[in-house]
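Box 3.1 A note on notation
Throughout this textbook, protein chains are presented in two layers. The first layer is the amino acid sequence; the second is a token string describing backbone geometry. Keep the layers aligned when reading.
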Amino acid sequence: VQLQASGGGLVQAGGSLRLSCAASGRTFLGYVMGWFRQAPGKERELVATHNTWGATNYADSVKGRFFISRDNAKNTVYLQMNSLKPEDTAVYYCRFSTARDIFWGQGTLVTVSS
């Protein structure tokens, strides 16, 4: 099983980026797909999750700016990030999980300049 995250980069404050995370090796229907991030010197934190039935959950700091979606046929989760702020700078990780399994992607760096 591999989770490949992509879409990170350098963007100015107020800009947008779209992250993608594609999984291979099996089907992930029934898994919660999510994004986490870790800023320098800080612990990894939840950004957003999306379950199979369409329920989403967001960190308060990104509500109204970030939007998570998934394509079950492609085993892919997306994170549309708008109105980016310097404090959004972090390595972003995707995670596919159930109560029994957790799979992490390798991380993609997002840098927001002021």
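The longest strand covers residues 17-24. The mean pLDDT is 96.
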